[in-house]
Amino acid sequence: MTTRHHYHLDLDGHSVSLDLRTGFTWRTEDIVLLVDGKEVGYHHQRGTGTTVLEAELPGEPARPLSVRIDHPHHGGHRPHTPVCTLMIEGRRLPMPESVLA
User: How many other CB atoms are found less than 10 A from the CB of residue 61?
Assistant: First the structure.
């Protein structure tokens, strides 16, 4: 069974989203970062931990950003819901998890 998490934040007229799919064994993940609906970052990993994806908000000049995904561990076999934070211009903005229809 695959578990999917979706995070989203609107920032200065731009949309920043992150899709995280955890594989059947809870040990593999595919992470996709989108800005304004366009894929700008991808990461595949085995195991869990902290992952940081880099991108830019379009504009003149473009503004670099990072999205950090933290996997809290509280024991047991299954990881708990990841925490997603957008970092831009010295600010740390929590990205709320969105319910997918």
Answer: 8
Residue tagged 């503004």 (tokens): 63
Distance in angstroms (rounded) separating the CA atoms of residues 66 and 56: 8
Q: What is the CA radius of gyration of the chain?
A: 14
Is a pLDDT exceeding 80 seen at residue 36?
yes
Bigger pLDDT: 75 vs 34: 34
| DSSP at 27 | S
Long-range Cβ pairs for the range 78-84 (8 Å, 24+) = 78/26, 79/22, 79/26, 79/48, 81/5, 82/5, 82/20, 84/7, 84/18, 84/20
**Residue 65: Cβ within 10 Å count:** 22
Q: What is the C-alpha to C-alpha distance for residues 19 and 31, in angstroms, rounded to an integer?
A: 6
Q: What percent of the chain has pLDDT over 70?
A: 82
pLDDT in tens, 15-30: 999 999 887 665 678 9
